[in-house]
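User: Some background: our group keeps a shared notebook of sequences we're curious about, and every so often someone picks one and asks for a predicted structure to add to the entry. Today it's my turn. The entry only has the sequence so far, pasted here. Could you supply the structure so I can complete it?
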Amino acid sequence: MDERKLRRKNIFKTMRTILEILIIAAVITWAVWSLVSYRTKQNALRKDAEMECTMIPSDEIVGGLSSAGKATGPHFIAISYNGLTDIVRPGGKIVTKASYDEQMQAIKDSGYQTITQQDVIDYYTKGASLPEKALLLIFEDGIMNTTHLAYPMLWKNNYIATACTFAENISDETGNYITAKEMNELKRTTFWEAGSNGYRLSYINVFDRFENYFGHLNTAEFLDIHTFLRRDYNHYLMDFLRDENRLRTESVEEMEERIEWDYKKMEELYREDLGYVPGLYILMHSNTGAFGNDPLVSRKNAEMMEKVFAMNFNRQGTCLNTRDSSIYDLSRLQSRQYFAANHLMMRIWDDTGHNVVFRLGDETKAIDWVRKTGVAEYKNRKIILTTLPYGEAEICLARNLPQDLELSVRLQGNIVGQQALKFRTDETGKGGVTVRLYDNNLIIEDGEGKEELFRLDLLRFDGGPFVSEPEEELNGKIALAATIIINDQDEERISEASRELERLTAMRAPSIADGAEPFIPELDIDEEGDRTLRVRLEGGRISVWLDDKLVADKLAVSAGSGSEFCLESAVTRGTERFSQTNLSDDVYDGIFSELTITGLDGSTIYAYAPPLPVIEEESGPVGRFFDKVSELFHWTTPAA
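Assistant: Of course. Here's the predicted structure to add to the notebook entry:
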């Protein structure tokens, strides 16, 4: 090949290489631009879907009403969380991060400033002043992930919080608990200080709901069988050790030695691993009258906690602390997984009398309704209707409805409480037809006197009762033996549980079919509800479907003189409801989701159930492809 042809061939190769590089660069540029553009559009759509939340002051909600406690003079509130999670509806005591974020924002917008443990000590020992709205923020139980989830709002609000630990977990590098090293790292951020929930979380003198003695249990064992219990148990430091007849199995001296050992062990571990003893202590458990269920035990706890700690939270359920309180008998309000932000703010208002703010949510949805009492938040296709303490909440649609209509809605408030739909009422709220969920019953009422036309027990609707009392009792004993075998450290106890499990599994308890009494579980205030309701009103007849099943077919009702439609929530009154954590709650959140009202011809009258943006359809295959790529490489794009 001559030199000219070789030069031409090399030039061609060079040009082809340059062209390939340019094409690859163009493809990469287009890919990055597409990803950024897609993510920007996605974030914009999400921002449109999640409207900015409007806040309203409590004076507009509770003006003219008095709270239970009007705080005077210097004081502070204490709010605590047992833990945080990313799970949407976790159940139990753990609060979702989304709920926590909303609650912290409402607290910040209400003007609260966090204070430190030293501020509390100086307040009680030196008479020091506090900010007008002082807040001590606490995270209990020592789960490391909780601090990760809590941190962004602490940083945003410039808040400081106490992270509590159990002393026996402070050096556990294999678990999920905060270790000494992690605690010191948290303190260096200046957003955290250390507290203590005690040496260990264990339970003594445990009896089931049938008075069977379950003995003394560690945390894992207790969690496995707690559904078979009521409130008949104690924490390790709160009582004498007792037998199945509730008689002491230890002397006063032995009890004092046992309790003193726990406190000394706490002090030793904290000094060895953490370098110091935290100032804040939370005696487990709360609300015992003093510092234990027995006066002698209480006296020993008081002696030891004053030697080891600077302060103690001894109560749960109210948030206000004043100079009249003892620094060793402080109270905190634990936020629960079912608290809407307005629920927490209503509780704070009731304890303090402070002017706080409530979340209104999406104003474009709020203008469709007239508030009568309580407070409503409009968000994410939900209307959250929060009552006044021991009271009600009611909103009415700001337009008249036809007499004949169909309605569908999901009712997602807790089972203990009331959520109601009121049709054909007049301006005073009298008359008409009411469909109500009331403590796990569906009720239809009619007329000004709210005559009860229909009642359905929802336990029976769901197919229950499911087991007899003897079967439930046997199931609890089997669960106890099984969890001891798995979780206990005492070989003799494990061996005994193995023999007991073999004996119990060979037994057969009489069933409901055999004529035994059915087991009816008590309703817990923590228990979540989720029911789909459909109502059809036509002339003097009402039909109701519950969870897509027809339960009331063309029931005769009065025509009614009004044309208003209202939503109502109410606290169950006149009875103390069951709670395994020995709590009561005087505020209730009715949750009305995806509410749609149509005419009998199918025409839409009102809808709070808009379709969510379907981003994949708008972005096409390119968007879907880059979704997968970004998931693979964990790419993120700043919000628009």
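Suggested note for the entry: The domain at 362-463+525-607 is CATH 2.60.120.560 (Jelly Rolls). Confidence is low (pLDDT under 50) at residues 36-51, 612-640.
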